[in-house]
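Sequence, structure tokens reproduced for reference:
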Amino acid sequence: MRFKQLPILLIFMLGYALCANGQHAAIKSNIIDDAFANINLGVEIGLAPKWTLDVPASYNSWEQYGGKRWKHWWVQPGARYWFCDRFGGHFIGIHAHGGQYNIGGFDGKVKFLGWHDGKYTGTDLRKLDDTRYQGWFVGGGISYGYAWMLGTHWNLEAEIGIGYSYTRYDQFRCTGCGKKIAEDQPHHYVGPTKAAINLVYLF
């Protein structure tokens, strides 16, 4: 998995935001991602009075305790329409996403809609308890959010989104072994694609 590529992207995004004109850009960190020890950074650029370009990204390559795996990188560029002025109040958005993952040893406890080999199967996150999946994904979705102004340069922002992802993966018998039981399998996922509580700094 090409986890080493994401820090370069994050540095480029940060540099672009810092070069933008005042009050036309923001950088942010997702508190939910922070709670799971994921390195994450978002950059948002003003395009028009009510439109912004938002590009969050997340990265994790740490070894988990108890043989658990939760490694990933993803990026999720999207456009936002603000009902009042940009960077404040209600907004709706559309986003694309893509990345790679290596995950197993967690009981997800939920099941979402999904299709596999032309059949409805759902996306059963409970299977992660004793199986490891490694692969890539692409997709997109829509979202709604709200930004609270905390001060001249600080916002608190919440966003939730749903959408679709297409993934191909290899499946392994257990979280820590290399016994492959399925290779290059396709899967279609429908469900939540974005959940964020962002602490935002405005330039």
Q: What stands out?
A: The helical segments are 5-19, 31-35. The first strand starts at residue 25 and ends at 30. The two ends are 34 Å apart (CA to CA).
